[in-house]
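Worked example 3 (structure in, sequence out).
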């Protein structure tokens, strides 16, 4: 009986694994096709300065307009893109599109807004990443000072020496750099001193309970104080309420990003917000 059950269980798992593999392969092929057929879109979420109420920057966030499934969020396909290497052409697409868009807004006199683009550490490991960025800036005509690049804290730590080396070269071009999802990387803080960066983005998980959690409030206060002592600017992610904003203003946080200001929106809608 037990043996029999075991056999069935094994068969069950095998079938499941097979199905998962097929789904995965299908999705990989679909994503490959999406890149070629232009199904990927870039949305933008503005950042507000707390000192003088300006929309200073906007983060580029990729979306997949899937022919059957509609608008798909990055959590559903970025991990697959990372694993398959598709993150390299995907990342290049987002970088080029965001730079083109920012330059268009600048040229039309609508706004001088800096655009912030998320990077995967895989992109940094390509030998020619710095020249790619230089080329995209040249092609689009966007000044380097209007581009910011974000790397998550946990990815940075995977490959800190390479990341520091490339970051130095990017900053030498005049590009701004940010550490994303700060506070979630279980990291030693000492690398902050070594890492050439302009902004620290406090992860949303510390912001959402800010009003009710004394611990989160203490952590956020400490991150802001530490970043300022290192002469870094601080952005709080995921700000949804006025109370969170008031707390962050009191603590001299430099900028906020979150639904309170705006959700990520298509380029035309951001243009309306800016205009
Ligand atoms: P992230 O870079 O930390 O981006 C912030 C995420 O928080 C976005 O999710 C944004 O929509 C969400 N968010 C912003 N404000 C709020 C808020 O007030 N409340 C809540 N609940 N959420 C808020 P999104 O767009 O789904 O992106 C998720 C992640 O996917 C990003 O996190 C980033 O790590 C990754 N990602 C997105 N686009 C790209 C890309 O072009 N390249 C790479 N490598 N990663 C990307
Ligand atoms: Mg980001
Ligand atoms: Mg983040
Ligand atoms: Mg994130």
């Amino acid at each position: 009986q037990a043996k029999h059950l075991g056999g069935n269980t094994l068969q069950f798992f095998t079938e499941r694994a097979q199905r998962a593999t097929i789904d995965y392969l299908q999705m990989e092929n679909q994503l490959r096709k999406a890149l070629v057929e232009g199904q990927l879109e870039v949305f933008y979420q503005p950042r507000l300065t707390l000192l003088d109420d300006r929309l200073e920057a906007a983060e580029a966030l990729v979306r997949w307009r899937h022919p059957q499934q509609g608008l798909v969020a990055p959590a559903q396909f970025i991990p697959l893109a990372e694993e398959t290497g598709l993150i390299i052409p995907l990342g290049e697409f987002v970088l080029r599109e965001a730079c083109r868009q920012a330059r268009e807004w600048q040229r039309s006199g609508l706004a001088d807004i800096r655009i912030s683009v998320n990077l995967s550490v895989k992109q940094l490991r390509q030998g020619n990443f710095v020249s790619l960025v230089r080329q995209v800036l040249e092609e689009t005509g966007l000044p380097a000072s209007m581009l910011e690049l974000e790397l998550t804290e946990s990815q940075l730590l995977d490959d800190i020496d390479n990341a520091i080396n490339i970051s130095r070269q990017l900053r030498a071009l005049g590009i701004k750099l940010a550490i994303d999802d700060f506070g979630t990387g279980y990291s030693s803080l000492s690398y902050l001193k070594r890492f050439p960066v302009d902004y620290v983005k406090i992860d949303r998980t510390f912001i959402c309970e800010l009003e009710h959690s004394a611990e989160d409030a203490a952590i956020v206060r400490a991150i802001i104080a530490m970043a300022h002592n290192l002469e870094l600017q601080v952005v709080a992610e995921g700000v949804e309420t006025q109370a969170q904003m008031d707390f962050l203003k009191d603590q001299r946080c430099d900028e906020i990003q979150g639904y309170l200001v705006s959700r990520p929106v298509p380029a035309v809608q951001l243009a309306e917000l800016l205009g």
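Notes: The two ends are 72 Å apart (CA to CA). The CA atoms of residues 109 and 275 lie 10 Å apart.
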